Amino acid sequence: MERIYLDHAATSPMHPRVIEKMLEAMNSTFGNPSSIHSFGREARQQIDLARSVLANSIGAKENEIIFTSGGTEADNMALFGVAETYQHNGRHIITSDVEHHAVLHACKKLEKMGFEVTYLPVDETGRIDMAELRAALRDDTILVSIMYGNNEVGTLQPILEIGQLLKDHQAKFHTDAVQAYGVESIDVNESLIDLLSVSAHKINGPKGTGFLYARSNVKLAPRSFGGEQERKRRAGTENIAAIVGFHEAVVIANEEREAKRTKFFDLKKSMMEKLRELDVEFDINGLLEYSLPHVLNLSFPGTSVEAMLVNLDLAGIAVSSGSACTAGSIEPSHVLVAMFGKHSERLTNSIRFSFGFNTTTEEVIKAAEETARVVSRLKK
């Protein structure tokens, strides 16, 4: 049976060029980057090259890139690092109801530590209201953390407007750009972003590596202690092979961004056109025109998300939902709850399709046909 992978927002397969570079590094660059001999210097050179490319990809300086184990660590480093460092200026933080759990769970922990967190609601498209952000902003606000693009429904937030709003405020502006990086054009200076989180495995790089951009005037209390790596901001011997792979993944993403964006939007259209052609009833969760190009979240009235996922998997189609299926029960997606309310039928009938560099139109058409068959069967 042919298997079709349409869950690239969860993780993406490594690009062949990335694998090639990593194998090369594992074979030849084994030195500790902190060592002063030639083996260590060779490893250090690989890290420096990668840091330069990553910094340039968002308009940052090289010393503003901190390598991490991925997006979760980057988010945690930003939130806890800012909270601990700047708590003398206030203990108020603003975020949104639709953030990734790496941010939301960190905020819950900060609340237990005595910080006050305001969770901004979103409208039915998944966007925050700038007027509500302005109203929530206080003199003692030290951090605003709003994600760049949502991982479940793809909605892009008004990042430029948030940066302008905070321009003359003491609050640091953090954005979780894990899902947006590599497909959106990001400039931290134009957007006035102070901290930005990225993960390599979302852009066809390896799992277990990412980075936190931290503007040079932002001080961060470290989260790990030991050596003096990453300018004393993150202790631990660097993962050279993963960083080399990350470097190559970013090079490829920069080369192919515009072509991929066009391709992904076309795939979205192809899937929806095929579903309409087959008389499948569906609603779009989020926006089409102001969203990540590779994420498409659809609601299928009269179906069950759990049954949909199982039946599509049996048909060889790998997709996902914002819902976590555990022990036969469904925990509603916090993103869809924020958008539509806890009693909406969309919580139990929505599926996320997400595309990648190796997704073809033929695969999307076949997935739409299988989806139509599953929907028809379930509605009967």
Structure, described:
This protein has 380 residues and is of the alpha/beta class. It folds into 2 domains: 4-12 and 257-379, Alpha-Beta Complex (Aspartate Aminotransferase, domain 1); 16-252, Aspartate Aminotransferase, domain 2 (3-Layer(aba) Sandwich), CATH 3.40.640.10. It is built from 10 helices and 14 strands. It has helices spanning 16-28, 38-57, 71-86, 101-112, 130-136, 159-165, 240-277, 305-314, 334-340, 361-379, and strands at 4-5, 65-68, 92-96, 116-120, 141-145, 172-176, 195-199, 210-214, 283-284, 295-299, 317-318, 324-326, 329-331, 350-354. It has a 7-stranded mixed beta sheet with strand order 2-8-7-6-5-3-4, with helices on both faces. Strands 9-10-14 form a 3-stranded antiparallel beta sheet. Strand 3, helix 4 (101-112) and strand 4 form a beta-alpha-beta unit. Helix 3 packs parallel to helix 4 (101-112) and helix 7 (240-277) crosses helix 10. It is globular, with a radius of gyration of 21 Å. The relative contact order is 0.16.
What layout of secondary structure does this protein have?
Layout (H helix, E strand, L loop, with lengths): L3 E2 L10 H13 L9 H20 L7 E4 L2 H16 L5 E5 L4 H12 L3 E5 L9 H7 L4 E5 L13 H7 L6 E5 L18 E5 L10 E5 L25 H38 L5 E2 L10 E5 L5 H10 L2 E2 L5 E3 L2 E3 L2 H7 L9 E5 L6 H19 L1
> Which class of the largest domain in CATH terms?
Alpha Beta
SSE string, helices as H and strands as E: EHHEHEHEHEHEEEHEEHEEEHEH
**Count of extended strands:** 14
The CATH topology of the largest domain is given as: Aspartate Aminotransferase, domain 2
